[in-house]
Amino acid sequence: MAATGRTQGRRWRTGLGKSAAAGLVAGALAALAPATAAAEGAGARTTAPTGAASRAAAADEAGTVREIDAFVRGRLDATGTPGAALAVIEDGRVVHRRGFGEDGRGRAVTPDTPFLWGSVSKPVTGLAVMQLVEAGRVNLDEPVRTYLPRFRLVDPDVSDRITVRHLLTNTSGIPASAGNEIGDRYDNAPGALADAVRDLARIAPTSRPGTSYAYSSAGYAVLGALVEEVSGRPFGTYLHERVLDPLGMDHAVATEQDFERERVAPGHRSVFGTPVRFDAPYDTAGVPFGHVGGSLRDLTRFVLAELDGGRLDGRRVLSAKGTAETQRGHVDGSVGRYGLGWSVGTLKGTGERMVWKDGALPGHHAMVVMLPDSDRAVIVLQNAYHQLRAQEFGDAAFGAAQLLSGATPRATPTDPLAIVLPWTTAGLAAALLLCLAAPALRRLPRRRTAARARSRRRIALTTTASVAATLTLAALLWWLPSTLGGTPAMALLWIPDVGWSLVTAVVLALLLAAERTALGAWDLRRCGGETPGPRRAAVQPRRPRSVGSEHAGRCSCSPGDPTASCWTARPTPRGTGGAPSGRWRREPGSLSRDGAGGPPNGTRRTDWAGPRPRSARTSRLRASAGHLS
Q1: What SS3 class is residue 226?
Q2: pTM for this model (two decimals)
């Protein structure tokens, strides 16, 4: 479509030249009138196809726009994004701009709805630094400490060798994890950016400057502080005066006051597949690397200036050479090459050179895809984000750019981890809760009886193994976010369903370990303080010989002896005033019983079988513990 527009321009200029030449010839030589008529006819014939081509191009453009709208809407539905805004630039002009869904406050999203742009802020910071370079106030290859003496890492020698170019190209040696130290601080106090940079003094570099690439938001925070130091103005103020206002970005956000005035749309985070509104405060310390924002119209004007070599509506914010330098791939990055704030690669399906940047904050996603060789671009702003589905959010802009170039986009399938991980961590937390409540669900008297049946060694080993297992589980859960490149605090902020499930599981695991320790100590006390050793054989009661049918198997006395002191096995029914049911009682005519639990005085122990055990289970437990029945 861009080629069609340029062809139409050439035809228009050619027709104009022919008409002017024909007029001069007709006025000078009347004999050439037939030739003049022929030339005008040719011009008329040329005009007619141009109008047809224009209508065909417009129809083709409208069809492409409809395809882009349908594709973007499908990606929004797939990710559960409540609202978004889309802009399409063709041949250096905006041909389509619209909103989708709601802004989180019940209002429809429009091209004027403000969003936060995330890391799309980095090209804005890169442009600000290049302005100082072109003004002769900063040299890309000078050490950062030349302009910002307070900048320091753990290793002072490495700090002295880091240049401005190293920071812009993410080759300073500052690790990506350093962004966790200074990111998402939500600090709006005066000097917040300077304080964030000062905190880098406890960060150790992971490589020598200029030797390897590591994406680092912390490096762009340092660049923002450098702009403040050199210009003598807060970074947000500098952006307004030198970048945003000159480009007519009237509703851009670069300060806390802008954020409150423009009422930026709230973001949305996914909680078990459902978008949940998230009203995060502004972060002045994060402006250079993530907290510039504004409406779709604002970001569109910035992109138009980038496509036109740093100029828009006759106002230039950077030279064409400086703009090209920011969009040139300087080093190999994690995806393609990296320039001075922009990523550089080729568009799938066409191989066309592509300059792009995506950005994310908790609840927000933004993406710009530029095709500088054809003056095309696509911009997509979304008021939702899920860290485990980052590629799906980027598909909306990448796919739209492919459709704009005539290629067929292919949507990225949902990562199974994004579905499985939240429910797995939540299930693990529920299982730990059941384990913690298990002792209360069982009857403690049973545990007390079982404790008597175990040795101290067995109790100690069981308790130690249980406590060690739960503590190991807690450590693994706490370590899990680091495998995703974050911390538990970041998990709570960026993927709250996983983060809260992990924190809950860790707390429950620690409580379970404490509970197991306490129950183990209690069991050791209840087992009677016995030391491990061979079990004592259980003493079985001696049964008397059977000598008569009336006293069969119970004693050795004479059946008719009235002075016999034997006890018989005849139970007395309850409520009859006799001995309790199940106890031995004296036969009529014998001496009176003087105790409910044993024989009267003078009775031979061998003639008495004692009280019956209450239950077979209790008998076995007592026998196994080495106690007399």
Answers
A1: helix
A2: 0.72
